[in-house]
Amino acid sequence: MKLNGISDNPGAKKSRVRVGRGIGSGCGKTGGRGVKGQKARSGVAIKGFEGGQMPLYRRLPKRGFWNPFAKDFNEVNLGRIQAALDAKKLDAASPVTVEALVAAGVCTKLRDGVRILGAGELKAKLAFHVAGASKSAQAAIEAAGGSVTILGGEAVA
Hints:
Largest sheet: 3 strands, parallel
Distance between the termini: 59 Å
Number of domains: 2
Number of helices: 4
Order of helices and strands: HEHHEEEHE
Shape: elongated
């Protein structure tokens, strides 16, 4: 097989219709838009209009709400932190913070802080300065000899 021998199946690619290019093309004059009226004009999109019937977006009830005060945390499992330690991306001597995790490539961006979750196993003694930690994560960290400091005004358990 050669790259220059690859082609689409017959009929797979449809060539675009060039509208408004004379009567001989079969799509000249009005360009397939019919005659006159709102839809024959340019810049008109009647999205959601159902001929006077109540449109679907108005027939359906509104559900839920958007909380403007919701926090967006990086959720990191203990196993992921242990993997970063094993790969020498995290320093066991310095405290584990959001900035340290971003620098190690565990988190992509800072967001509203980091929340430690308990999946996986932690072998090293680490000091965590985080926005929150689950009870199982706190228990595992303290069992390994580490400590957890919850930052911010409200604790995120």
